[in-house]
């Protein structure tokens, strides 16, 4: 589904990703761990097509196409979804309206008929089974005044509605207490399917007790320096990232 080869990305005049390669197949869950500032969010942003992230070298192929040629709206239409590390508040824009507009933009892109408000409400009720959020949050402005946990849940709810093919979750666990973490993980697990892939960025092994990944990668110094199965996350928890640096020194 996704093949990233030797990706180099500049942000604000600095090279942040420096030769990152990663392959993700349908049905797989890949966890990406790594120290703060390693470039994990940069990877998510560049895959989603955020402005200001300049690819200077390398390639990204998604479903056999050059992903980097597509604008962010096209990428979303093609099923790429990014749950933000820091979800944005959009005062004055009703959350339900926002979600319906996003879904209908995607349906329009795919040549599918738009959903009217009755059809959309039916879908919302169905998706509330995947990720519980209160009615009240649906009626407020997008993320405005939401707690950290409510914002993260709203991201997962949005994901459940949009049914992406490739979902990138950027530290969706940060700021969650253990109950919220479990609920978010259950929401993600409910969406796991042979047609869908996940890239789950996290600092902490804890999330991976609930979202069990097929692969774990360590991103350090702008590239993947180590890959393994879920036991790699446990080793990282025990030994820290310095252990990886010692095992696989990164050439400057
Ligand atoms: P991580 O998510 O692994 O903690 P990031 O990808 O957020 O790391 O950041 C990697 C580096 O790139 C950091 O030094 C950060 O300050 C820098 N960076 C990321 N995005 C921007 C931006 N929009 N403007 C300036 N610097 C940025
Ligand atoms: Mg960070
Ligand atoms: Mg980050």
UniProtKB/TrEMBL annotation:
<dbReference type="GO" id="GO:0016887">
    <property type="term" value="F:ATP hydrolysis activity"/>
</dbReference>
<dbReference type="GO" id="GO:0005524">
    <property type="term" value="F:ATP binding"/>
</dbReference>
<dbReference type="GO" id="GO:0005737">
    <property type="term" value="C:cytoplasm"/>
</dbReference>
<dbReference type="InterPro" id="IPR010230">
    <property type="entry name" value="FeS-cluster_ATPase_SufC"/>
</dbReference>
<keyword id="KW-0067">ATP-binding</keyword>
<dbReference type="InterPro" id="IPR003439">
    <property type="entry name" value="ABC_transporter-like_ATP-bd"/>
</dbReference>
<keyword id="KW-0547">Nucleotide-binding</keyword>
<protein>
    <submittedName>
        <fullName>FeS assembly ATPase SufC</fullName>
    </submittedName>
</protein>
<dbReference type="InterPro" id="IPR003593">
    <property type="entry name" value="AAA+_ATPase"/>
</dbReference>
<feature type="domain" description="ABC transporter">
    <location>
        <begin position="2"/>
        <end position="246"/>
    </location>
</feature>
<dbReference type="Pfam" id="PF00005">
    <property type="entry name" value="ABC_tran"/>
</dbReference>
<comment type="similarity">
    <text>Belongs to the ABC transporter superfamily. Ycf16 family.</text>
</comment>
<dbReference type="InterPro" id="IPR027417">
    <property type="entry name" value="P-loop_NTPase"/>
</dbReference>
